[in-house]
Amino acid sequence: MGVLVCGGAGYIGSHFVKEILKRDEDVVIIDNLSTGHLESIPHQNPRVKFYEDDIRNPATLDEIFSANKIDTVIHFAADALVGESVENPLKYFDNNTGGMISLLESMRDSNVKQIIFSSTAATYGEPKSIPILETDPNEPTNPYGESKLMMEKIMKWVDQAYGIRFVSLRYFNAAGASEDSSIGEAHLCETHLIPLILRVPLGQSDHITVFGGDYDTPDGTCIRDYIHVTDLADAHLKAIDYLRAGKSSDIFNLGNGQGFSVKEMISAAEKVTGQKIKTVIGDRRPGDPARLVASSEKAKKILGWNPKFTSIEKIIETAWNWHVKNPKGYES
Ligand code: UFG
Questions:
Q1: Are the beta carbons of 270 and 276 closer than 8 angstroms?
Q2: Is the full-model pTM beyond 0.85?
């Protein structure tokens, strides 16, 4: 059997490709390389085909679906910077929401009936209670989260009309790198906490700025639920099995269920790297909720998913190993 991976050269997409290739599957990747990396694609593997293009190009999608045996689409291709989405919302509604419409049209026309979608904790907005359940209200506080929520709603109606079933996976904070350090997190414009913390012991930054020290949390800094990227990849494999077993469309949170504050993350990184990390408390970053922690009980129960990386130090260690080996990301 075969899958189409949209955005397979990106951070989470490339880790998924690495995991699915451990199974007997053919993998077609489409990626416009706007944020993904050609170097992360396993070109040498004869079961991998790569198309460099945008999912909003229907001719390419039609060609992919007619030339390859594909029963499931795994859709990672999207812009994902909260701050940028506030400044340039139309980019997000065009690329993310518009991209989903193009993709689903091609799937409908080519009779491809299953899709797994990268959704986000940002669909919830400011949580009403912790841990967050899938049934909690969705009130996104930024266009990124709104674009992803719209994509979920589009899939619901498309399922009703054309029978394209979906699994939507709402990631909390994706973190870490593959254990063999062959692929990892490398963004052209880095905004994420762990890679920014690690720049200090790598000698690439003088300090890490903590965005706000006056939140209503025990140490005053924001709390997040960090989940290892290989565990996220594994949830997609389980979602493929779920859809192939003929089960109905559904939405699942993916997190570890444990929250860590920014200060706790810095302490954990000091332990992993054996170095003191200079910290400066700065202003709050607009739009950051104080606390985001998932309940992933539904994914555990229904998909049979069980994250293996439950230690925050182990998660940071995989990221550290990748950054030490690739201090300039894929450029090195
Ligand atoms: N932070 C700092 N300093 C930094 C960078 C981040 O203190 O230099 C803090 C943030 O304020 C936040 C925490 O570290 O409290 C984590 O920030 P990230 O930017 O790493 O991650 P976010 O929680 O903002 O974003 C993640 C995903 C998004 C998703 C969002 C849902 O990366 O795609 O969760 O809220 F939309």
A1: yes
A2: yes
